[in-house]
Design goal:
With 173 residues, the protein is an alpha+beta fold. 32% of the residues lie in helices and 33% in strands. It contains five helices and nine strands. The strands form two sheets. It has a six-stranded antiparallel sheet, sandwiched between helices. A three-stranded antiparallel sheet has the order 7-9-8. A hairpin with a 4-residue loop joins strand 1 and strand 2 (8-10). 33% of the residues are buried.
Length: 173
């Protein structure tokens, strides 16, 4: 559900909101986890400087595209647990749904819940015709999330310096 007043998505257990300046320390702790970073292009946890640069890029993406990546907040605790959203992939000229959560929040259904909300936003609010997703080929948990939200496996591809399973979903008319 989109709250138009503050451009925030809300699910049963989560808020997806824009990043704020004060989020850097908490977000750096999540993205600094090697267990999280192993599934991302760097293949390891991110430094605070890398996270800061990434947040700047996310902010610019929102300004340029009108959509982007939110921080994911667990309603019950009020804690940031990761990120999720939509990202324009320039080299393929397509929009991907993506997510990364702190390791302590894996296996609780949060990635599926957040990614499903982002997917709905892309189709229902933005009117996108197609959304894709990528997961490293050995990331079985992420591939399950992508399949649970309805994307279909197409093939393995090389992207972002990684071998990934490539998925897509077209808007139902």
């Amino acid at each position: 559900m989109l709250n138009k007043r503050n451009n925030q998505l809300e699910t049963e257990r989560l808020y997806l909101r824009h990043f704020k300046n004060g989020d850097i320390d908490e977000y750096s702790k999540i993205m600094g986890q090697d267990e999280v970073g192993q599934w991302l292009p760097r293949g390891r946890g991110y430094t605070k400087e890398e996270v800061e640069k990434s947040m700047d890029g996310m902010s610019k993406h929102w300004e340029e595209k009108g959509y982007g990546i939110w921080t994911v907040i667990e309603k019950e605790s009020g804690r940031m647990i990761g990120h999720c959203g939509l990202n324009f992939v320039k080299q393929n000229d397509e929009v991907e749904v993506l997510y990364a959560l702190g390791k302590e929040y894996w296996g609780l259904g949060y990635a599926t819940e957040a990614a499903g909300a982002a997917l709905d936003f892309g189709f229902d609010v933005l009117g996108l015709d197609r959304i894709v997703a990528f997961a490293k080929t050995d990331n079985t948990a992420s591939k399950k999330v992508i399949e649970k939200i309805g994307l279909k496996y197409i093939k393995d591809i090389e992207i972002f310096g990684m071998t990934c399973a490539y998925y897509d979903m077209k808007r139902e008319l």
